[in-house]
Write a structure and sequence with these properties.
- The chain is of the alpha/beta class and 419 residues long.
- The chain folds into 2 domains: 9-173 and 241-312, 3-Layer(aba) Sandwich (Rossmann fold); 329-415, no CATH class.
- It has 17 helices and 11 strands.
- The protein has helices at 9-20, 43-50, 72-83, 97-110, 148-157, 178-188, 195-207, 214-217, 223-226, 228-236, 246-255, 278-285, 289-300, 336-341, 366-369, 379-387, 393-409, and strands at residues 61-66, 88-94, 115-119, 133-139, 159-170, 258-264, 305-312, 329-331, 348-353, 356-361, 413-415.
- A 7-stranded mixed sheet has the order 3-2-1-4-5-7-6, with helices on both faces. Strands 8-11 form a two-stranded antiparallel ribbon.
- Helix 3 (72-83) links the parallel strand 1 and strand 2.
- Helix 7 crosses helix 10.
- It is globular, with a radius of gyration of 22 Å.
- The two termini are 36 Å apart.
- Pfam families: Methyltransf_25.
Length: 419
């Protein structure tokens, strides 16, 4: 464990920000209307990308949301656990009392009984005696901390054997324009001023922001447009805001004794998807995965964040054989019948990586397989059904391999964990 860190001006300003404007801005009354779904910390993703679809669903899951904010990740995961009748608890840790009050109100609105709140700082975890967790979420937090490496090491020390984390950090190129405005606002609205005064200056700047400002050209995020006061403040006035290229992010993991089991979505980091030239693809195939990921980030220019599931170095769990007859595939979220409807007549699936839409080729038979994937039928049962439709077993094996590996890389089809 690391020693407590002295609170600097940026950190004290950050604490004041989230007490004044808990982020993201949420109204507990809206819980009756919608559930925010995303990555990381989707239950089926955790089962697959962290536990390799090997951990029984009947095993209680102890979760820490490290820096929960107003609770999008916590509410999503706790709701999914409740609906699936999964035992366990979701411990929400944040130093903002107002943010925790929002989480509590949202949980109450949903009748969730598997959430526990702790008001404390991530900068000094040792005195809390939290114990260990099967899964830790630290989403949108590390890049605001005084010492991200030290905190990540502290969190790693709280991982149970075989456990993992879901992380999100900002990426630089997709946030082009943000840091320019941040620098200007720090001069116009210094950190030692109150959050309300700083917000007032930001609003005045945004009302007359020149049309040539890079921020106006960037459609990769919208907190400053539709995120309310909290969204505007977090994007443009945050007193400590680091951004990591994908390689810098992987280096951060390495420094904490961690490795990525999945960069989300995996296909996003495959530059061959948008580089059809055979000579370029041949050159790409000779490069390492991290080099290819870096090229994808460099060329697309729209990655505003990096999301990853991570485990201790050398502890990645290999999922079951996706072609074994007893293996059970499951849709991550969108029902197979709906995903099949999104396929075009040429058997491609238009897939959006943020603001970049790429046509993803699938076998023609995928249109018939997808509606059959329900989290209950095994691969063997899928093959038997397809055989009645004129698809022999050897053909099914080829089609299923291409279908699964493609849709797994898009985080759309995963494998079901044992009961």
């Amino acid at each position: 464990m690391t020693a407590p860190k002295t609170q600097d001006l940026r950190d004290s300003s950050l604490a004041a920000q989230y007490e004044a404007y808990p982020y993201p801005e949420r109204d507990p009354r809206d819980e009756q209307k919608r559930l925010f779904i995303g990555s990381p910390s989707h239950l089926r993703e955790i089962d697959y990308w962290v536990f390799g679809a090997q951990r029984p669903r009947s095993t209680p899951l102890r979760v820490l949301i490290a820096g929960c904010g107003t609770g999008d990740g916590a509410i999503m995961l706790a709701t999914q656990m409740t609906r699936a009748e999964r035992a366990g608890e979701v411990v929400c840790l944040d130093r903002s009392s107002k943010a925790l009050a929002t989480v509590q109100a949202r949980a109450k609105a949903r009748g969730l009984e598997n959430i526990r709140l702790i008001q404390a700082s991530l900068n000094n975890l040792a005195p809390l005696e939290l114990g260990v967790f099967d899964y830790i979420d630290c989403c949108g937090v590390l890049h605001h901390l005084p010492d991200p490496v030290a905190t990540l090491k502290d969190l790693t020390a709280h991982l149970a054997e075989g456990g993992g984390m879901g992380l999100m950090v900002y990426a630089p190129y997709g946030r082009t324009g943000v840091y320019m405005v941040q620098e200007a606002l720090e001069k116009l609205a210094p950190l030692n001023e109150t959050p309300s005064a700083r917000l007032d200056y930001a609003k005045r700047v945004m009302r007359t922001l020149p049309a040539t400002a890079w921020l106006r050209q960037n459609g990769n995020f919208g907190d400053h447009l539709n995120g309310g006061d909290a969204g505007l403040y977090d994007l443009l006035l945050n007193p400590r805001d680091r951004a990591y290229t994908v390689n810098a992010f992987l280096d951060l993991l390495e420094s904490a004794g961690l490795e990525s089991s999945c960069l989300m979505e995996p296909a996003r980091y495959n530059p061959a998807l948008f580089m059809p030239d055979p000579k370029l693809r041949a050159r790409l195939s000779a490069l390492s995965a991290s080099e290819q990921a870096s090229i994808a980030e460099d060329l697309t220019g729209n990655m505003a964040t990096h999301v990853a599931y991570v485990v201790r170095k050398g502890a990645r769990i290999t999922p079951p054989n996706y072609q074994h007859p007893d293996t059970v595939p499951i849709m991550r979220e969108i029902p197979g019948v709906e995903l099949a409807k999104q396929m075009l007549p040429n058997h491609t699936l238009p897939f959006a990586f943020g603001t970049l839409v790429v046509p993803i080729a699938l076998p023609a038979q995928a249109r018939g397989i997808l509606p059959l994937i329900d989290g209950q039928r095994s691969v063997g049962e899928l093959a038997a059904i397809l055989s009645t439709r004129g698809v022999p077993h050897d053909k099914f094996q080829t089609v299923w391999q291409e279908t699964f590996l493609t849709l797994e890389s898009l985080n759309r089809v995963l494998l079901q964990s044992p009961a």
